[in-house]
Amino acid sequence: MKKIYVKEEYCMGCRLCEIHCLVAHSKSKKIIKAYKEEFPRVLPRLIVEEKGPISFALQCRHCEEAPCIEACLTGAMGRDKKSGAVTCDEDRCVGCWMCIMVCPFGVILRDEREKKVATKCDLCPDEDIPVCVAKCPNEALVYEEE
Amino acid sequence: MRKSRNYLIVGNSVAAIAAIEAIREVDKTVPITVISQEPYRAYSRSLVSHFLEGKVTIEKVFYRKKDFYQRNKVQTILGKRVIAIKPKEKKIVLEDRKRIPYTKLLLTCGSKPILPSVKGIEKKDVFTFTTWDEVKRLAKTIKKAKSAVVIGGGMIGLKAAEGLKSLGLKVTIVEQAFQILPAILDKDGSKIIHRHLKEKGIRLIINDTVLEIRGKGKKVERVILGKSGEVDCDLVVVAIGVTPNLDLVKGTALKAKRGVLVDRFMQTSVKEVYAAGDVVEAYDFLYGRKRPIPVWPLAFQQGRVAGSNMAGKRMEYRGGLILNSIEVFGLPIITAGLSAEEKGYEILTKSDPKKKVYKKIVLRKGQIIGAILVGDIDRAGIIVGLIKDRLDVTNFKDEILEENFGYIYVPKEFRAKMVLPLEVR
Ligand SMILES: Cc1cc2nc3c(=O)[nH]c(=O)nc-3n(C[C@H](O)[C@H](O)[C@H](O)COP(=O)(O)OP(=O)(O)OC[C@H]3O[C@@H](n4cnc5c(N)ncnc54)[C@H](O)[C@@H]3O)c2cc1C
Fold first, then answer.
1. How confident is the model at residue B419 (pLDDT cuts 50, 70, 90)?
2. Is residue B2 a part of any domain in this protein?
């Protein structure tokens, strides 16, 4: 399956991926509305790590043997049969944080705006290319077959 | 001619479901039968507390979609107890004496709550908190009750206490140790939780035990403690721990200590008989020996390994570690590995009691072997991953408990292996 990979040496830490991820997962999908009107804001589903000149964006690796699926107490975390993506059915999630405990990449986030749920990269199911990849100005993120 | 085959699974919880999914990845046709004494399709055991509080609908208590068994061509026998297994004859016996033959058997009969031998334990309004039926019975009783005593301040006891409190009961927890969660939390971490519980209106009595449950006839009216007198209550929840359910194993050729002994392939000492989940004693890679670890993710992994091997695809259980994630009245706590250990190990901690944050890692020869995270649990899995990968963290150990800790602090070679696979090509 196609996955998102990062080329650390090209990442500038501009965080455009973060912004576009947030917008893509907002209600309006419009940047100004998402930032100015939709409170509390949705979370970007990736993490940008930064230390000095080094930075990179990290999002769900959609593991083959996914620890989050194994650990999920409710069955909310599962695999999309078609795309192979690991997805969280937020309706079934109760926010027990078992997935956060076992995700070795630390890319599952706590969304506590309303009902507590775990939230994570869904590979942008409605797009051809995940927005973080599409909007990266320096091709530090790529979407490729394994 | 091909011998007719059929796989039998005793138990219908997470280990069984994981096994079914693994079997079906390999073998789409072998007949599978699942038997459970509980009259439900597989449900999320830990959600019984959410159910009690009315936080989830009945439909959401179930672990898989309604058509799971049909889709996976699994025959179910629900609401019937297995009373014996006969490995020599390759048969099991149901409570109605019906015998069912198998070619391969998987035992996933879980654990059972430990009951203290105190007077009054048999009373009607004394409950355990490990099955849906028991919690449904509790839910009915609560309607007439005003106060409750929870015996045991472990994870299940805390969940029960929170549930009862949220339904308006006065709740007292009686814990024998000097702190709650004694198996996984240390003194400093537990102090924060003690304060938190108090703020939420829970009375906590530590370093004491219940000697007797008293009340007229079948009723519960109070408990008598060893040191602190008595506590009035209308019901008691017993949650002092669980132990592998060996009922079916006793007297058979299956070797067991505290739990059923299994090899790396989840096979028991008897060929073609596998076991997985809370019922087994599997390898704990931090302890370096086998012991029961009754947690959900390991039950899943073991079930998956067992199922795969039954179906003929070799899969190895790499060993587990104890892992817990629990929220106590909104305060998240994650512990992993030998988290309560101190003596002889290097300990790093960071705490901010005001914010109810406490973090600790336990190091053995440069490797993390245990962790406690209270209040701030984000990205906890990275630490758990470092434990599993046995990475030497000496060079960046001081960063691990920092708020912005991430892969960027991890040596580049490891980082590349873990998260940047394109670069290493
Ligand atoms: C309230 C509560 C909260 C929990 N929260 C967490 C948590 O947050 N995180 C975590 O990791 N773990 C948690 N656990 C532990 C977790 O639920 C167990 O580790 C897990 O359920 C073990 O799964 P299992 O498949 O081994 O067996 P179980 O879930 O114990 O199921 C055993 C199955 O065997 C059947 N059975 C047993 N004997 C017989 C018989 N003689 N005949 C027929 N059927 C039989 C039962 O009906 C059942 O279907 C919690 C447990 C409880 C009770």
1. low
2. no
pLDDT at B423: 40
Q: What is the pLDDT of residue B413?
A: 82
Of B225, B240, B255, which closes a domain?
Answer: B240
Residue B58: exposure state from Cβ atoms within 10 A (0-12, 13-18, ≥19) = exposed
pLDDT, tens digit, 9 for 90 and up, residues B197-222: 999 999 999 999 999 999 999 899 99
The distance of Cα B248 from the centroid of its chain, to the nearest Å, equals: 20
User: Which residues, other chains included, contact B159 with Cβ-Cβ below 8 Å and sequence gap of 6+?
Assistant: B46, B49, B129, B326
- Write down the residue that tokens 């989830």 correspond to: B56
Confidence of residue B422 (pLDDT cuts 50, 70, 90): very low
> Following DSSP, what letter does each residue of B305-336 receive, concatenated?
HHHHHHTT-------B--EEEEEETTEEEEEE
Query: Closest residue of A to B421, CA-based?
Result: A5
List the single best residue of A74, A136, A145 to mutate versus B (max B Cβ within 10 A): A74
Taking each helix axis from N to C end, the angle separating B14-26 and B296-310, rounded to the nearest 10 degrees, works out to 30
Domain end call among B288, B316, B344:
B316
Q: Let me know if residue B380 belongs to a domain.
A: yes
User: Which tokens in the block code for residue B360?
Assistant: 């600790």
Whether B256 and chain A come into contact, CB under 8 Å, resolves to no
What is the number of domains present in chain B?
3
ipTM of the assembly? Answer: 0.96
pTM: 0.96
pLDDT > 70? residue A113: yes
CB contact under 8 A, A56 and B408: yes
CATH number at residue B395: 3.30.390.30
* Residue B425 lies inside a defined structural domain of this protein: no
Residues spanned by the domain of B14: 7-111+244-316
Q: How far apart are CA B22 and CA B30, in angstroms?
A: 12
The predicted-structure confidence for B37-64, as pLDDT tens digits, reads as follows 999 999 999 999 999 999 999 999 999 9
Closest CA of chain B from A65, distance in Å: 10
Domain ranges, residue A129? 1-59+124-146
| B124, β-bridge pairs | none
Which residues are paired to B380 by β-bridges?
Answer: none
Dihedral sign, CA of A111, A117, A120, A125? negative
